[in-house]
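Incident log, structure service

09:12 report received: a user says their structure output differs between two submissions of the same chain.
09:20 pulled the input from the user's history:
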Amino acid sequence: MKVLMEKEAEEFLEKNNLPIARRRIVNTKEEALEYIKKIKFPVVLKVTNQLHKTEVKGVRVNVNSYNFNNEFDELKKISKKILVQEYIPGKQLIIGIIKDPTFNHVIMFGFGGIFVEIFKDISFRICPITKKDAKEMIKEIKTYKILQGVRGEKPINFDQLENTLVKVSEIAMKNKNIKELDINPLIANEKEVKIVDARIIFE
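09:34 re-ran on a clean worker, output below:
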């Protein structure tokens, strides 16, 4: 069994033409600031040595020039290397692949982030899926109306989300040895969808 954590998993997905948030692993504050010149504040800072980063408070979101020094120093107490990632506002979604003993690869979609275990608001299809299947999967979740935009919010980019779902299902077809694939979260807003964290397990 082989496990690809965030950096390696995202590189694998990027090679398969999936949209990944810009990011870089750095050792020092100076390296981080040099990279931030390219992607601009605000940013996300993450530890690189933890499986469940949120449980150790290893993810700092929406970090700006005012709190950067403090947040970076706090994370360095947990991890030698820090991942600097562009901050993308939007809805947190999840896409997953599970290898089922009966149906083989199955794709899952739903609301993600830290709420995935609470809401359990997900839909499933057998891989590979079409764009029509992707549309149906998105509409099946109870929180679909939130994605359409509420209280003056704009709807997310459904076209990009549908394309991403189809591409993920195709990855499972090309890589039969994938046991699990977790994209959580996938951030979606009116302009784009981007993967900000992922994990892949190969048999």
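09:41 both user submissions now match this output. Likely a transient worker issue. Closing.
09:42 reviewer note: The longest strand covers residues 178-188. The domain at 22-86 is CATH 3.30.1490.20 (Dna Ligase; domain 1).
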